Amino acid sequence: MTATPVNGISRRDVIGTAVAVAATGWSAGSGTAWAAPRSPGGTEDVYERMARAAALRWRRMPGDWKDGPFLGNGLLGVQVYRGATANSVKVMVSHSQVQDQRPQWRAPYGFSRLPIGHFDLTLAGEVTGVDWTLDIWDAELHGTVTTTRGSVRFSMLVHNARTALLISTRPSAGEETAAWSFTWLPAISPREKDKPADYTGNPDPRTGSAGTTHYVEQPLIAGGGWTTAWRERRVGSGRLLAAHIVYGFPEDLSRTTERAVAEVSRTLSADPDELVRAHRAWWHRFYRRSLVSVPDKRIQNFYWIQLYKAACATRAGGPSMSEWGPWYPETGGSWSAVWWNLNVQIATWLIQGSAHPELDSVTSTFKNFEKYLPLSVPSEYQDGDTYALAHPSDWMLRPGAKTVGIPGTSTKTDNNGNLIWAMHNVWLSYRHTMDVSIVRDVLYPILVKAVNFYDHFLYEGSDGKLHLPLTRSPEWADATDCTYDLSLIRWGCATLLDCLRILRTDHPRAGRWREILQRLVDYPRDATGVNIGAGKPLTESHRHFSHMLWLFPLHELSWDRPSDRDTIRTTFDHWVEDRSLWAGYSYAAASSMASLVERPEDALDFLTFFTDGNLIKNAWMTANTMYVEGGNLAIESPLTAAQSVLDMAVQSHGGVVRAFPSVSRRWPDLSVQGLRTQGAFLVDANRSGGRTRWVRVRSEAGAPLVLQHGVDGAIDVRDERGRRLRYRETAPGRIQIPLGRNETAVVLPRGTDPDLSARDVPALGDAKPWGLPD
Q: Which residue numbers delimit the Glycosyl hydrolase family 95 catalytic domain (predicted)?
């Protein structure tokens, strides 16, 4: 193995002539039909047909991350777009774990995500056209680049299990000299805001080779670093490029390089057809977990793309989801860490209802890295029994040189509620699986200490109520008795008492939690509804729904209770009245809230406004369903909009499973399969002609089932063998069914025998593919 100082050669290290794969497969003569991936004989099932229909397409060269194809496996991320010259295509590579390790600065600098570099395909002629398809069913990008000299066919994937980038190309006559090269990028935080005066970038990398494998090893000032290694091998009449990125800290960089080189050899020694089959098999199982079909196929395809994006971005046991997922924006890279004052929480809601616990990196992150939570607590309160979570952090919950600050003092920040809000996501993971170990091992021990942090600052006012000193409502203003914090304190105490019941235990502070619930001051309110805080009404547009967490997602106030409706209606109407400063996630949250308050037309309007790509102040959703805010990449808003679709189809808050609770009259048909709800129920349901035709619920845990079924008229309730089941009507259209573990109930109009299989509902109008299809 040899290494060459980078100042001795060009950054660009040519690795050979790009050759290709036959049109029939990954490699010439292979049996895997990558270039024609549809099932032979048209045997696709409905899941495959819908996922393939959501494919993104390009007939114009994308310019950058805003409109280019993207691939990933929760660690390695790839984006494809125009190169620096007219005769090149860029493949940007990035990795969720690649970051700095200097805790003397705040996370966006000290633990900043760092750029790696890009592979470039340099062509003989100038690019004149592209024809690309990102097939989300197979999680593969394939197509053709046409030039003034010929064309190059290619296929590309980020292997799900091996975290390898695999690229195969096939040039026509005239493009035989097309060649790959790699360009490294400086390992410097891209963030400029509040940059420390003493910040310095990391040193330049070293390039080298081990036999025919090339590598770039990037050292960090703090020790360790990462290595990008790649090699091509001939397969039949073509070549296959494999690249790996291996990160190591604090291990010696030479060891990291050895591992990267070994990974490349291991990947290239495998049968490429077997690699592709294993990769596709994971993704096919992934998509068959659940199904959502709506008549607006543009939105349907958007929803399926968000499932793909979520699985590209994060996995249970892996890094928590940053603002960028595993990708790195070549421009617009201000959010270089993990933001916890909203972004992670809302980006990961989708995984619950869509039945994808294998993507639950939030729960695993807190399980694995709880030990770092005291770092966010001000030193005066690090008593061993207090936790907090500053934002941003790195993916291991380390904030660098920042704490959440002390309420009531000049050090306060808008971070005090981050940890409890994150624990609500963990609670949702428990409720959707009924896995008691989540409560025992993660939620309960952390939530006890998170509530204890707030308890240090609660004080008794002259009214005998418990009050909170000055804190900050995220993205709005400082306030005493801040509604954002009060709602999280209430939810935290109530949930701790629930945890005691679930775990059949007690805690010496249980009495205090009950006292807080009884004595905590009411939310400040006026004629416009609930305020930001005491003496702080909402007086202008507010993109964050921080003062409405009690409605969504905490469900403390409920539309089911008539006594809550006026407060909900007044506050919601006032918030949505002025949208001039809204962000994309504001529209997604407003859609979900509208679904909660039985306004399906408003819910659809909010959703379509955002997904149609309208400019929102200086933000918009892009052609590839990424999201731009202030010129920066952020992925949480589109993912949250997918949750808005789920909230139209199925809800399960307040102990009630609701089928089709908020379906617009513009959507006469809707079909779902396998949607997961609180109580660990799996829901299938079908709606056609504006009426619910049947609902099927399977219980995984034997939890009590109260079902708002939405079926008109008299009903039958049967098990999966057609036998009648006992049930009790608790309200019009709402029944209680005693289901045991792994038992199923089907609710349908009396005397009917419908087809209960999954279906793709008829389209209303045409649906332009996502991407740049024309």
A: 312-629
CA 256/CA 487 separation, integer angstroms: 46
Kindly report the number of other CB atoms within 10 A of residue 618's CB atom. Answer: 11
Distance, CA of 244 to CA of 421 (rounded, Å): 36
Burial class (CB in 10 A: 0-12, 13-18, 19+), 199: middle
Higher pLDDT pick, 642 / 332: 642
Q: Where are the alpha helices (DSSP H) in 578-627?
A: 584-596, 600-611
Q: Return d(Cα 688, Cα 752) in angstroms, integer.
A: 14
CA distance 204 to 190: 16
Residue 360: phi and psi, rounded to 5, are -80, 75
pLDDT tens track for 27-38 = 543 433 333 334
The torsion angle over the Cα atoms of residues 309, 314, 316 and 322, rounded to 10 degrees, is -140
Q: What is the pLDDT of residue 415?
A: 83
Residues 6+ apart with CB under 8 A from 512: 455
Residue type at position 713: G
Among 226, 227, 233, residue whose Cα is nearest residue 211 = 233
pLDDT digit string, tens, across residues 16-55: 333 233 333 455 434 333 333 344 344 579 999 999 999 9
Q: What is the DSSP string of 287-331?
A: HTT-EEE-S-HHHHHHHHHHHHHHHHH--TTSPPP-TTTT---SS
Cβ atoms of 240 and 166 closer than 8 Å = yes
Structure tokens at 355: 């039945």
At which residue do the structure tokens 């499973």 appear? 657
The token pair at 687 is: 């709606």
**Tens-digit pLDDT profile for residues 191-227:** 999 999 999 999 999 999 999 999 999 999 999 999 9
CA distances from 72 to 79, 95, 104, 381, 691 (A): 9, 9, 31, 40, 39
What does DSSP assign to residue 44?
Answer: -
DSSP 740: -
Helix H or strand E segment including 182: strand 179-184
Q: Which of 199, 260, 205 is nearest to 231 (CA)?
A: 260
Sign of CA dihedral 592, 593, 596, 599: negative
- Residue at token pair 């008795």: 481
DSSP class of residue 685 equals E
Distance CA 348, CA 639 (A): 7
Residue 476: predicted pLDDT: 86
Which ranges in 64-160 belong to alpha helices (H)? 107-110
pTM (2 decimals)?
0.95
Q: What is the pLDDT of residue 237?
A: 54
Question: Phi then psi for 561, rounded to 5 degrees?
Answer: -95, 110
Using only the alpha carbons of the chain, give its radius of gyration: 27
